[in-house]
Every structure is written in C-alpha cells, then in structure tokens.
Design brief:
homodimer, alpha/beta, Nucleotidyltransferase, domain 5, 5-stranded mixed β-sheet, 5 helices, 5 strands, globular, metal-binding (chains A, B)
C-alpha cells in the first residue's frame, strides 16, 4: 500500500509518500514541503497548493491520502488557512477517486512513538528509524507527513482489511441458513 | 459589474448572482443553493461542491466572487466544513482568474439594511426590495448570498475604483516633476 501523508498548511504543507504493509519494513518514496507565498491572497495560495498536490498525486499515484485532522481549538489566526489547505488536499484526492483518511496528531504520535504526547524530536527520530534513513528526513517539517503515512499504514491496515472483508461478505451469495457476516 | 455571492457551507451553500454598479438599480441574475449529501465523506462532498461552483462560474462568468468570511469562533463542529467550503469557492475563482473578496456577516448586513445587527428577515426583506423582486428570493438561505453580492457591488465599487486608479497611475509615465499618485 502506498500512502501520501499530508500535514496541511498554506505557508508550509508537509508531504511524505511511504510504501508498506503491516509487519513489513516501510520504504520512503518521497518527502517534501509545498509552500505558497504569504503575500499572495488566500484564493491564489489555495490554487497554487491545489496544483502542487495534484502534481504529487499524479507523480506518486498513492492508494490512500492520509491528512492530519485540523481542530478549531488551535490558533484562530491560522486555523482557517490550515482547514482550507486540508480541504484542498481532500478535494484533489476525491477527484482522483483516492480514499482519504484523517488522523489526529495524537493518533499519529502514538502510532509512531508509542506515546500520544511525544514531541517533534521523538517523532522525527522514530520516523528516521522506521524508514531506515541514514539521517533525519529533510525538511524537518515533512517528518510529520511521513509519520502520518506510517500511522495510516499501521492503523489503516486493520481498517482496510475490515472494509475489504465487509465488502467481500456483502458481495458473496449467502448459503441458505448461513450465519450473516455483517 | 457582475458579482457571484457565495455563503459557504457543505450541507447548504447559498449562491446569488447580481449585476449592478453603485447608484444604479441592481438586477438579480440567479439564485440557488448547492447541497452535498451529509452521509458522504467530506472529501467527496468537497469534490461535489467544487463541481457545482465550477459550473456556476462557467454559466454566469462573474467579474468578482464575494465570499462570506468564516470565523473560527463559530460552532466548532461545523466551522471546519464551512472553512473548507469557502476554500473551494475561493479556489475555483482563482483558477478562473476571478478576483475574490471576503465580507464579514456584519459588513453584509450593514450594507444591505443599514445595521450590522439586522436579523435574517430584515436582510431578506431588503434584498427583495433592492432587487425589485415580487416575492422573497427562494430558497430563503440564498438571500444571504444575494446580500453578499449586493454588499460587494456597493462596498467593492469604491474599492475597485481605487484599485483601478492605482493601477492606471502605476501604468502612466510620470511627467518630470509631477506629483506622485501612489
């Protein structure tokens, strides 16, 4: 499974692409940061971001897009831009028929480090180790996007198998008297 | 000037198109509401909304898109969807090179009724009168989108003349010793 992780933002939007399945070593395919100029109006920044996300989806053809869930409790001045940036990422995925999953920052931290309260340095350290990189991923911001992708592979792995089983069961003609599978 | 007003939302997104200039009677070109199914995931709802806004922009070719400014202080459960919906509207406008202007709800109410604290019924009543409609615009939700468009024609009129003057001045070769216009 290939997952494109997106840590949304207008000024900096972290992106990380990871290949892997549960129980197998993970492979980093790509890491980067999209930026849009702070002196541009929001509409044009969103348009630039859309084009960058679109290019990334076309280049890497992910099976899933994992986006960090944005909370309204955060910094009020930046939360609108972050919410809109996450909306753009979701839109581009949906346009290509790619499933989108949201994960909270604590889900991501817990998946990667074992603690939902891990700090940035711990997340980066574990991402570096899990992806068997010789040095910490650069730019540093994008480590969160890689952590999102890893989180989805591990958490989403179970969710995806469940969804696949449900879909398979729904598609199977039941033998008379068989116990329902849904 | 033709303005497409958008009152953003995922469940209901009001749209209204108004033609007019300051000091002249206004004309309603279109009014409507975009809806996306609440049982669909957010990514696909955003994609459906994008397609509806895109179709509206292509059908009406507005000179300006006026979007209601979303505040983070509002209902936390719905503000994310509203912010993302407004981002989609802004994105589509930017993609077509159409300027986007944001207006706060109180700016809109003040423009249309004279009071920033007017209620929904007063806004609808004034919109009906200003557009010389024989009955209140339907659906009722879309009256806000028409109010946004009217607000922009009146407020934006002055802003646009200023911008045009600045642009014209910047493009004019100055006579030696002429007083700067910027």
């Amino acid at each position: 499974m290939r997952v494109l992780g997106i840590d949304p933002g207008l000024t900096r939007c972290g992106v990380g692409v990871v290949d892997g399945t549960v129980g197998r070593p993970l492979t980093m395919v790509h890491v980067g940061v999209f930026r849009t100029p702070a002196d541009l109006d929001t509409a044009r920044r969103l348009h630039q971001l859309e084009q960058q996300v679109e290019a990334s989806v076309l280049a890497h053809r992910p099976d899933v897009v994992a986006v960090e869930r944005v909370f309204a409790q955060h910094n009020v001045r930046t939360v609108m831009g972050t919410a809109q940036a996450s909306g753009i990422a979701m839109l581009v995925a949906a346009r290509h028929g790619i499933p989108v999953h949201l994960h909270t920052p604590s889900e991501v931290k817990a998946s990667v480090t074992g603690s939902g309260r891990a700090d940035k340095a711990q997340v980066t350290q574990m991402v570096t180790r899990l992806l068997r990189l010789t040095e910490a991923p650069k730019p540093a911001d994008a480590a969160d996007a890689l952590a999102l992708a890893i989180c989805h592979i591990w958490r989403g792995g179970a969710m995806n198998r469940l969804e696949a089983a449900v879909a398979a069961a729904a598609g199977t003609r039941r033998a008379p008297g068989a116990v329902g599978t849904r």
